[in-house]
Amino acid sequence: MDSKEQVHTARKRSIGLLAKATRQELEAAYGAIDGAPAHDVVRGPETGLVMVRGRIGGGGEAFNLGEATVSRATIQLSSGEVGHGQVLGTDGRKALLAALFDALGQAEGYASSVAAFVEGIAARIAAEDLKRAEQTAATRVDFFTMVRGDD
Amino acid sequence: MYVAVKGGEAAIANAHRLLADRRRGDRSLPAISIDQIVAQLGLAVDRVMAEASLYDRALAALAVRQARGDMIEAIFILRAYRTTLPRFGSSVPVDTATMRIERRVSATYKDLPGGQLLGPTFDYTHRLLDPSLLSDEAVDVPAEKEPLTEPVMRVSDILAGEGLIEEDGLLPQDHVPGDLTREPLEFPLQRDLRLQALARGDEGFLLSLAYSTQRGYARTHPFVGEVRIGEVEVELDLPELGFAVSLGRIQVTECQMVNQFKGSAKSPPQFTRGYGLVFGQSERKAMAMSLVDRALRAEEFGEDIVAPAQDEEFVISHSDNVQATGFVEHLKLPHYVDFQAELDLIRRMRAEYEKKQAGDDLREAAE
After folding, report:
1. A138 interfaces chain B, CB cutoff of 8 Å
2. Which residue from B minimizes the CA distance to A57?
């Protein structure tokens, strides 16, 4: 049996990846679920703002940098599981789908397919991150000394 | 004096219809899409996000299109939009140390952990117009190279290792970050509020002030310790779950400006810092912000306040281009009654002046 903390860590990671999924990824994966359980929308979907904070000097006291648009939704499956979706941007449907997957991830019979979907997103993001990192690495300056003044 | 009058409805409606026509322009050309603005005019979009103080690329691009490319108008539109939305909360402070770096340069260390990463920069281009962009010529795919595995260490941490630089900005414990969108500004400000104002301040205004410090109006002896651009996670605490979750990533530009400081009775000689953090890829703005941040800390370091860039009330009260444009541009709105009153006054004064002149002339003639 997983400890409460491990469950938290796994869910936190899953929610974070669902937030980075594209609308198309979420729609396709939801469409592929055979007989998705009924759900009630508890809250939203609604769009609002989150004040993004930075830190003075990078690591000091917090300050308010500016806001970002965020959409969120909360749903409850007929089997009782509650899911929260919150994503940057104004796409309420995306937040709703993220909430559905958050709930399905806790539901018996769906958890493994949700986990596979979330890992797919993780792999896609990791590949994009690697590509960008490789492109950035190609712009790293290799200094070489032309003339040394000490001999 | 303000007097309500009516009229002009038809003229206004037709003017807006004409604006829509001019905005669309030549109908034989395809209309520009929001996706195209985001993808191909990205730095314009970033500036609108930064100065509107709202991170949303699609909405910023919409504002750019709606404003026909007028940046301040676009910023105004996006600012106005944000007032229509409820606020869900404040994020966990973003961690720029774990940024996914797209560019990172330091002017203080040649060889530093993580290296000098130029990224997609205009630096070292020749600033010659490129005729290949007149047409839609194919563009090479970027070169790729194995990334270094070492972390891209913050330059301030390198200097901090020797104790030669001041710490990250600290404020009294349990200090709640001030928010100028919620409470009116009261001077003097603390540094957190100044940074919020500077982060949304007009790039041109801050650039000019930063330049003035270099030209001797409040010398800051600056070095770019580091500029870094990349993506950071935005996390929000969810009380329902009892932990913070990621909402996604945003791109930011951070500048650590390192400045000389000879020390005081309280602190040994060490480097001080100015800090800049801006939404999107906005290197010039982040650098200007960090210079102005440092200049505005004059009192903290017991420096003489002799220049505009050090004058907190002057800088912060005039850095917001939406406020500035509102007050300057309101002058073109009808002031008919004010002006009539002024006109009457001038006519009376002129009549009195002429009467007095005539009286003087008579006296002179009589003498």
Report:
1. yes
2. B168
Beta carbons of A49 and B116 less than 8 Å apart: no
Record the pTM. 0.93
Residue B151: is the preceding peptide bond cis (ω within 30°)? no
DSSP-assigned states of every residue in B105-155: E-SS-SS-TT--B--S--TT------GGGGTT---PPPP--PPP-S----H
| Angle in degrees, 0-180, between the axes of helices B57-66 and B42-52, rounded to the nearest 10 | 100
B26 vs B12: CA distance, rounded Å: 23
Do A62 and B161 form a contact (C-beta atoms < 8 A)? no
Q: Which residues contact B365 (CB under 8 A, 6 or more apart)?
A: none
Rounded to 5 degrees, φ, ψ at B284 are -60, -45
Where along chain B do its domains lie? 9-82, 96-122+148-319
For the record, the structure tokens of A29 come out as 């994966």
Which A-chain residues 94-133 have CB contacts (< 8 A) with chain B? 129-133
What count of residues does chain B have? 367
Question: Which amino acid is it at B124?
Answer: Y
Q: Which two tokens stand for residue B255?
A: 């500048």
DSSP conformation letters of B26-87: -TTSPPPPHHHHHHHSHHHHHHHHHHHTEE-HHHHHHHHHHTTT-HHHHHHHHHHHHTTS-E
Per-residue model confidence as pLDDT tens digits over B268-325: 888 899 999 999 999 999 999 999 999 999 998 888 999 999 999 999 999 999 999 9
Instruction: Give the other-Cβ count within 10 Å of B343's Cβ.
Output: 10
Residue holding tokens 């789908």? A97
Which residues fall within 8 angstroms of residue B198, CB to CB, at 6 or more apart?
B206, B276, B289, B292, B293, B316, B319
Output the six-digit token pair for B310: 């050090």
Residue A32 DSSP label: T
In this predicted complex, what is the ipTM?
0.93
The C-alpha atoms of residue B347 and residue B151 are separated, in whole angstroms, by 75
Return the residue in A8, A63, A69, A91 with the most chain B beta carbons within 10 A, the one to mutate for interface testing.
Answer: A63
